[in-house]
Amino acid sequence: QVQLVESGGGLVQPGGSLRLSCAASGFTFSRSAMSWYRQAPGKERELVASISHVTSNTNYADSVKGRFSISRDNVKNTVYLQMNNLKPEDTAVYYCSARSYVIGTAWGQGIQVTVSS
Question: Are 31 and 54 in contact (CB under 8 A)?
């Protein structure tokens, strides 16, 4: 079955960096668009970054442009989110998402990222 497993979250000080990973299985990763979303307490889930499956075109929320970078490895079936210069407002549960005509939309279980001194 489709599985998305996030890792790399945790507690970091403001200005620090984290790298999230999402290991995918159970579907054709190379033919799926991949995204990272986040949801802070009391707020709606929002798109952070996405990467297409054909051209690896990327798209970012305005709030993370210049600080976050999404990438994918179609051999390892993994998508990454490099987060630099983290701010307290980046604190949220981060979710990996896959989308294709075959599977529809799939979600990981989420991973906590906390930015605090």
Answer: no
**One-letter-per-residue 3-state SS of 4-71:** EEEECCEEECCCCCEEEEEEEECCCHHHCEEEEEEECCCCCCEEEEEECCCCCCEEECCCCCCCEEEE
Residue 71 identity: S
Q: What pLDDT, on a 0 to 100 scale, did the predictor assign at position 77?
A: 97
Asked if residues 39 and 49 have their Cβ atoms less than 8 Å apart, the reply is no
Tens-place pLDDT, residues 73-110: 999 999 999 999 999 999 999 999 999 999 999 999 99
Three-state DSSP at 88 gives helix
Q: Is 31 within 8 Å of 99 (Cβ atoms)?
A: no
